[in-house]
Amino acid sequence: MEPFLMQAEEARMKRDVRILFFCQALMNASVVGQVAMGGLVGYSLATDKSLATLPLALQMVATMAASIPAGIIFARLGRRAGFLMGAAGSFCGALTFALGIWLGDFWVYALGALPAGIGFGIAQHYRFAAAEVASPAYRPKAISLVMAGGVLAAIFGPELVKHSRDLFEPFLFLGTYLILSLLPIGCAVLLTMVRLPPAPPRPKVTTPVIDILRRPAFLAAAGTGAMAYGTMNLLMTSTPLEMMACGFGVGASATVIQAHAVAMFAPGFFTGRLIARFGARTIIGAGVALNALCVAVAVQDETFWHFTVALVLLGLGWNFMFTGATTLLGEAHSPDERVRAQTANDFIVFGTVACTALGSGVIHATAGWEVLNLMLLPALLFALGLTLFLRPARIRAT
């Protein structure tokens, strides 16, 4: 009977991971679609064109700001309540984006980035939830598989943009945002089917957050994650704008973003195995090399294929670096410190992303495409240095 119960528990665990995979896919689809069209919508509505990426920057600011209240909600009410609040934020954000387009008002459109960013920030914890429902041996694979939910988002999001942008002419992309508002509803339905851990018991003695922040393992994980996401976002956000300047249409830029997003998430089906075999730091180093190669391709020329190959390399590099950083984060905390460590990590990561989202439009408008690409290199070297020199003993067994 005991082997039977163990098999049943393992089957249930893998079912929960699959459901989280689809939740991640639905939440990411709206973000991928927003990347494909957000800069273009901002450019069309903003009087000052350097503000074209401001809505994306505000979305990342909200993502960063959401990390602290999300941590409190997860700690007190559990994962399910927090994820449902994130779905509600994404729903409200999509409808506000649609209202801004309907009114032709840039600032109303930008306002939609706030609830959308909150939803996106909370959705980042699906990878942590996967680690919590998985057994220690299955944990790296569970994390990478849930992150691979972005593959469906990468396919579906840009296709949705391309086929729904003209539904309510002359209000370009209005129909897209109305459809995107349905995705978090589907996510909320799936959340009723998954077994999630309850809110953790409050420890009698809590470790100060500053002590967690000082740990080499945390510095390596958060710093690498910030550089991975920040450099990726800096280049990705400005790519549709540069393609528009080169004469490419919305369909072409959406296809490039689609290829990029697939490259971001498809390795999730095997990145966990690579980390288990070679170690997180080796995989992070491979990600740094891929991102450096992306820069080399991007500055060579501005044909459709140069954009596509560069963004695919960027996506692959991001996956290796960010999945590796997420794995390293597990070395930085004990079980009772889990939520605080994850919250602090995401605050740092998405604070960096917010800065790059705003800076992307400004740098692109003032310094140009080549300078923007070359700015990735120092950040990549910094991330590589963190993983090479911060090699602490593990805080807990995984």
From TrEMBL:
<dbReference type="InterPro" id="IPR020846">
    <property type="entry name" value="MFS_dom"/>
</dbReference>
<dbReference type="Pfam" id="PF07690">
    <property type="entry name" value="MFS_1"/>
</dbReference>
<feature type="domain" description="Major facilitator superfamily (MFS) profile">
    <location>
        <begin position="209"/>
        <end position="398"/>
    </location>
</feature>
<feature type="transmembrane region" description="Helical">
    <location>
        <begin position="82"/>
        <end position="103"/>
    </location>
</feature>
<feature type="transmembrane region" description="Helical">
    <location>
        <begin position="248"/>
        <end position="266"/>
    </location>
</feature>
<dbReference type="InterPro" id="IPR036259">
    <property type="entry name" value="MFS_trans_sf"/>
</dbReference>
<feature type="transmembrane region" description="Helical">
    <location>
        <begin position="109"/>
        <end position="130"/>
    </location>
</feature>
<feature type="transmembrane region" description="Helical">
    <location>
        <begin position="52"/>
        <end position="75"/>
    </location>
</feature>
<feature type="transmembrane region" description="Helical">
    <location>
        <begin position="371"/>
        <end position="390"/>
    </location>
</feature>
<feature type="transmembrane region" description="Helical">
    <location>
        <begin position="21"/>
        <end position="46"/>
    </location>
</feature>
<feature type="transmembrane region" description="Helical">
    <location>
        <begin position="347"/>
        <end position="365"/>
    </location>
</feature>
<protein>
    <submittedName>
        <fullName>MFS transporter</fullName>
    </submittedName>
</protein>
<keyword id="KW-0472">Membrane</keyword>
<feature type="transmembrane region" description="Helical">
    <location>
        <begin position="217"/>
        <end position="236"/>
    </location>
</feature>
<keyword id="KW-0812">Transmembrane</keyword>
<dbReference type="Pfam" id="PF00083">
    <property type="entry name" value="Sugar_tr"/>
</dbReference>
<dbReference type="InterPro" id="IPR011701">
    <property type="entry name" value="MFS"/>
</dbReference>
<feature type="transmembrane region" description="Helical">
    <location>
        <begin position="278"/>
        <end position="298"/>
    </location>
</feature>
<feature type="transmembrane region" description="Helical">
    <location>
        <begin position="173"/>
        <end position="196"/>
    </location>
</feature>
<feature type="transmembrane region" description="Helical">
    <location>
        <begin position="142"/>
        <end position="161"/>
    </location>
</feature>
<keyword id="KW-1133">Transmembrane helix</keyword>
<feature type="transmembrane region" description="Helical">
    <location>
        <begin position="304"/>
        <end position="326"/>
    </location>
</feature>
<dbReference type="InterPro" id="IPR005828">
    <property type="entry name" value="MFS_sugar_transport-like"/>
</dbReference>
